Amino acid sequence: MADEEIPASAAPPAGAPPKVAAPKPAAAAAAGAHAPPKPPPAMAATPWDGPLTGSLKQAFGDQISQYSTYLGQNFVVANAEALDSILDFLKLEADFDYLVDITAVDYPKAEKRFELVYILYSFASNERLRIKIHVADGVKAPSAVHVHVGANWLEREVFDMFGVEFEGHPNMRRILLPEEWTGFPLRKEYSILKQDDRWVKENLGIESGH
Amino acid sequence: MPESTFLDVNELVLNMGPQHPSTHGVLRVILKLDGETVTGTECVIGYLHRGVEKIAENRTYIQFAPYVDRMDYVAAVSNGLGYCLAIEKLLNIEAPPRAQAVRVILTELNRITSHLLWLGTHALDIGAITPVFYCFRDREEALKIFENYCGARLTTHAFRIGGLQYEVYDGFEQEVRAFCDMFIPKVDEYEELLTNNRIWVNRLKGVGVLTGDECKEYGVTGPVLRAAGVKWDLRKAQPYSGYEQYDFDIPTAQNGDTYDRYTVRMEEMRQSVRIMRQAIEKIPAGPIMAKVGKVVKPPAGEAYVSIEAPKGELGYYVVSDNSTQPYRVRVRPPSFVNLQALDRMVRGGLIADVVAIIGTLDIVLGEVDR
Fold first, then answer.
1. CA distance B17 to B23
2. Per-residue pLDDT tens digits of chain A, which is 210 residues long
3. pLDDT in tens, B302-360
4. Which residue of A has its CA nearest to B319?
5. 3-class DSSP state for residue B151?
6. Contact B302 A44 (CB under 8 A)
7. How far is A101 from chain B (nearest CA, A)?
8. Which of A76, A193, B104, B367 is least surrounded by CB atoms within 10 angstroms?
9. Taking CB atoms and an 8 Å cutoff, what residues of chain B touch A153?
10. Are A29 and B330 in contact (CB under 8 A)?
11. Domain B52-334, what fold?
């Protein structure tokens, strides 16, 4: 059975409540902010150089600050303002015509806490590429809807879960949670037991479950 | 949506779902109608939202594995495979060949059960009552193999990070072979009922057309993309789990309508049997688990790994901070992304076709809402 696999040393003792609220110390490591008590090793990404990096460097210069590869997967880190033109360039000039996914990762201790990740795919060259931009809390990110129509719901989900708004999005509303819900569940400070007590009380007529 | 701008004098707003048998779960679609013509839609989703991605951040890598089965619950094996491959990628290990072969067999079997459920319910929506009984009868045989293998029929948790927990049981090969022999004539039987059936053809041909370019724009993948003439399947494009060893075709069609998606999925079931037949003949001997510690603790880093699930590209983007719990797990669900194209597909069509189009998208709300 699976019990065998549960790490005896690392797992909390049986019956102990799951670790919930405490944000993990490594949170800031990848974003390079304040040193946590025990700094974990950062991602061992290596620089990436290829035909595509050449044309990107030529077109965008210092708008793209990092070209990296990790486990054979390439990604670039770009300025948020340049995102539009980068997506457009990649779609028209390099055939990255399929926007696979948009998601976010929250690094609360970083100066710009949200890392938005755009995963692209090119049918022509059978290649994947990730673009990362960083936005601070309360700052709007540029919407990709006018480059890739499919970004619509993906950006709404990021807004719903992280509270990152997208400038120029045609319908910036919550998608999975009820519209009147307060709070953004995938932010690190949002406890897994937390609910919107008022919403639960008003709409379900019960006390919130914690 | 404010009524004043949403409604014209001749327009009518009709609410479909979330309690509606043809929405395949708890999907609510607000339809804007002019007579019988659909002029706009809005999908209301989230009724099944359980916060799977949040749960992932509060469990260890191993503890989270069973949760992924609860997303696309009719294709749980595929979900599990994608998750295991993603964590294996982060750990930079690969499952041993024997485990890979068993994974392929179970995943293809799962593709058949998923397509059978789609076919039965889709036909039922259109008004053909018989196929659903045939489909469930034959799906049962496949579910019995899952049950014999791991004790569960739907939410199987069949795979482990690094390989398999269980060796195959005595008689596994025979049962899979028997299923393959039994199943191909059954596919012909379903086709006999439907393929040239005049009502079926009239209800499906030219309905809900989505061209290849539109699919790419929306990120729509899986059989819907292939029915629009794009020959793209992740099992061929970026093979995983040893798919490059097997000989199979990617069925495609040209029109991108509901009928083409039907023919593509029917052919996919035959191709799955073809893969299973090859895999079962040469399951290599050897271990079923790679060397994975009792504590799964990938080095800090991130990876995106995706597989060809029955519904399309199912991806996992996992960020590790070198602890025992994932820092972030993002699931890229095919159903969620495909459902977004519903509006484009039904706009300008008839209200009766909405049911056919929801059926042909083959969504599972557990995966849409997560």
1. 7
2. 344 444 444 444 444 444 444 444 444 444 444 545 555 677 777 888 878 888 888 888 888 888 888 888 889 999 888 898 999 899 888 889 899 999 999 998 888 889 999 999 999 889 899 999 999 988 899 999 989 998 999 999 999 999 999 988 888 889 999 888 888 999 988 888 888 888 888 888 887 766
3. 999 999 999 999 999 999 988 899 999 999 999 999 999 999 899 888 888 898 899 89
4. A105
5. coil
6. no
7. 7
8. A193
9. 336-337, 340
10. no
11. Cytochrome-c3 Hydrogenase; chain B (1.10.645)
Radius of gyration, CA atoms only, chain B: 21
Residues of B in contact with A161 (CB under 8 A): 53
Contact (CB<8Å) B323/A117 = no
CB B215, CB B224: distance < 8 Å: yes
Using one digit for the tens of pLDDT, what is the confidence trace for B40-83? 898 899 888 988 999 999 999 999 999 998 888 888 999 999 99
- Distance, in Å, from the CA atom of A182 to the CA atom of B159, rounded to the nearest integer, reads 38
Question: Measured between CB atoms, which of A99, A105, A177 is closest to B319?
Answer: A105
Structure tokens at B128: 């053909």
Task: Output phi, psi for B303, to 5 deg.
Answer: -155, 145
DSSP per-residue codes, B284-331: --S-SB----SS--PPSEEEEEEEEETTEEEEEEEEE-SSSS-SEEEE
State the count of interchain CB pairs (< 8 A) between A and B: 146
Nearest to B58 among A20, A73, A101 (CB): A20
Sorted by where each begins, the domain ranges of chain A are: 44-176
- Interface touch A119/B237, C-beta < 8 Å: no
Length of chain B: 370
pLDDT at position B227 is: 92
Query: Strands B28-34 and B11-16: what pairing?
Result: antiparallel
Task: Identify the top-confidence range among A197-206, B10-19, B227-236.
Answer: B227-236
Q: Poorest-confidence range of A53-57, B153-157, B158-162, B197-201?
A: A53-57
Quickly name the fold that domain A44-176 has. Answer: Beta Polymerase; domain 2 (3.30.460)
Interchain contact, A7 vs B313, CB within 8 Å: no
Smallest Cβ–Cβ distance between B321 and the set A40, A152, A190 belongs to: A40
Nearest C-alpha neighbor of B245 from the set B257, B253, B235, B254: B235
- State the pLDDT confidence band at B20, using cuts at 50, 70 and 90: confident
**Nearest C-alpha neighbor of B111 from the set B362, B342, B366, B368:** B362
User: Please, are residues B360 and B208 in contact by the beta-carbon 8 Å criterion?
Assistant: yes
CB contact under 8 A, A70 and B337: no
How far is it, in rounded angstroms, from Cα A180 to Cα A201?
13
Compute φ and ψ for B107, nearest 5 degrees. Answer: -70, -40
- Distance (Å, rounded) from C-alpha B75 to C-alpha B336? 15
